[in-house]
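Question thread 4412

I'm putting together a teaching handout and wanted feedback from people who do this every day. The idea is simple: show students a protein as raw sequence, then show them the structure tokens that encode its fold, then repeat with a second protein so they can compare. Below is the first pair exactly as I plan to print it.
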Amino acid sequence: MILKSRLHILSWITLIIFPAIGLTLLWYLNEYTIAELIQVLEFDKIYSPLTLLGLEFGLFYGIIVLIISQAPLFKELTSQQTELFKKIDFNWLDIIFISFCAGFGEEVLFRAGIQTWFGPWLTTLIFIAIHGYFSLTSLKKNAIGLLLFPFIILLSFAYDSFGLWFCIAAHFAYDFIMFAMVLIENKKEKRRPNNF
């Protein structure tokens, strides 16, 4: 329960503080007005077909990653993280909330904010590095970063053409499918009889 509470707190921080940082930087460094900052959030495009396309893209890429991650190299690398998430007693509302917080907060910070100054390529590298998927000491760990790189770079370039909500939806869908697999595995394990 403590892990779940911490994850919810981190989710709230991601939802509120990350966008606040990105928008504050735009306001301060690029001298955006309040009206321009609201425009950056593109609330008028939430119900766009591009948002649905983003959901499809995130689900598609998530399924590909799940398939590839069954390879022994990736299983070894992701097992520690998966085991940690299995200890958290997720339900469907938890994973929807956590996935949305990550999708919204991180995309506003990285796409609308950081990418404004560093461009798509460097922003993608920063994004993957901050998530711990690049390592100078472990070449194996870099394999996860390389697996995620196409997804993140495509989001970076899609931002200008498809908008913020495409990116938020794709990020949400990707995270959702990853957490959903952990939830489904947890439910399967709970149904299995104990073998001694």
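The second pair follows. I'd like the answer to focus on this one:
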Amino acid sequence: MSRLYAIAFLIVATASLSCSGEQSNRTRPVVADVAAASDADRPAIVFMGTSLTAGYGLDQSQAYPAFLQRKIDSAGLEYRVVNAGLSGETSAGALRRVDWLFRQPVALLVIETGANDGLRGQDPAQLKANLQAVIDRARRQEPPPALLILGMEAPPNLGPGYTRSFRAVYREVAQENQARLVPFLLEGVAGVDSLNQADGIHPTPRGQAIMAETVWKVLEPMLEGVGSRE
């Protein structure tokens, strides 16, 4: 399976399961603190995302944000990870709930959105506007959180012009807002049968671990200024 075909299949199938994903989220918290309850006073890293972040089909401990919590703990850093993934969500949906996510102080906001926008062929300009609006809302917080954007790819069947414009959105938003960027969250995972569940779509725990490694390469330097635990 070619990389582009795999990306297209992943996004189409993810959205086709969005209804079942939303059903699943009715029976579990949309926002889950993956750190221990006793660590509630630690600064929060909130992962806003889709089913890829929510860990569709897996236990919460097997989603990549939980892998990152374990890396943070091993590094002796004073952060707790909050998984705010929601299956089937578009960038417009992310914008609608961002204020709700900021009911708690957020030290770092990780934004993973856009896969479902790409499936629906929505205008990349609207994706960019929604991402910018999420960032603008974040910057109203006092103090404003640091920002990390996780990039996604659009289905190639929409044409090379669309896929280029879609990909460019993440780079442009990151540059214009001095945010850090992971170019493609599913690098090395999309289209690899052994790294995806039986549906061929959502990553297995091993796939999620690779996603965590991809994010950690960018996230870790953002956290280096935090002192070790006493």
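Top answer:
Good format. For the second protein you could add a caption like this: The chain is about 45% helix and 10% strand. The chain has one domain: 3-223.
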